[in-house]
Amino acid sequence: MVVTDCGGCTASDQMVVINNGNVDANAGADKLLCKGGSVLLSATPVVGATYEWRSEVNNQVISTNQSVTVSPIVTTSYILKVTRNGCEDTDDVIVTVNDPPVASAGADVTINCTTTSATLTATGGGTYKWNTGTTTAAITVSPATTSTYTVTVTAANGCTATDEVVVTVNKTPPTANAGADVTVNCTTPSASLTASGGGTYKWNTNATTAAITVTPMVTTTYTVTVTAANGCTASDEVVVTANKTPPTANAGPDKIICTGQSANLIASGGGTYKWSTNATTASITVSPTVATTYTVTVTAANGCTAL
Question: What structural domains and CATH numbers belong to the chain?
C-alpha cells in the first residue's frame, strides 16, 4: 500500500491476506426411517475440518465425529457444523420417521381329526409374507404337529412388522378298550361287554352304547370303535367264546329181567346226572314189575344238558 500526502511525499507498507479456502458442509440426503430403527448420518469429508452434530429437539451436541447413528422416534432435523481454520458452514438433514404397520396373524387355533386344517388370515398390510413362502393375507395349513406360523406385514411406507400364530394339533387317538375276553355257556348264556376310552362308541353290532349284552351261539369277535372328543378314533376287539356243546348222554343198553329181579343202570357222559326216578347218581338199581323206560338227564361242566 502507498500513501501520498498533500506535499507530494509518499510512503508505503504491505500486508499479507491468506485465503483459508471455503468450507462447505454437506450432511447428506434426507433419510426415511421406520420407528424403532436407526440410521447413519455421514458428513461429506473435509480435510482438516472438525464436525459437530446437533439435534433440533434440544440443540445439544450429539456427536463430534464425521458420522453419527441416530434413532429418533419422531421426524427430526439434525444440524451439521463443519469448521476449518476458523471458517465454518452448516447443513441440515431431515430424518422422517414412519410408523410400522400393526401386524396381526390372527388368534391361535386348534385342529383335530374332525377339523383337519385351519385358515389363517393376517391383517395390517400392505403386503404379506408368511414363513411358508405364501404372499397372500390368508393361508390354509394342515400341520401334522403343533406349529408356529409367522407373517411379515409391509406397509405402504415400506416399514415392516411381524406377528405369529400357533396352530395346535390335537390328533391324539383315544385308548380304545373293549374289555377282557369272556366265555359264555349254557349256564351263563350271555355276556355284558363294556368298552372304555370314549367319547362315543360304535360296535360292529351297530350298538352305540359303551355296554352291550351279547348271546352268541358260536365263538364271536366283537369290535368297538371309540371316537374321542377331538374326532380321532381307535378300535379294539373282544372275543366271546361260546362253550355250548352239549354232553353225549348214554343211559346204557336196554335190560331184560325176570319178575322179582333187579337191573343196574349206569349212565355216562356227565358231569352230573338226574334220572327220571330223581336219583342223581350215575348208577342206579331198579326193580320194575312191568316194562319201564328210565330217562337220565346228563349235565356237562358247561351247564349244557342232554337226555
Answer: 31-98 (2.60.40.10), 109-170 (no CATH), 182-243 (no CATH), 263-306 (no CATH)
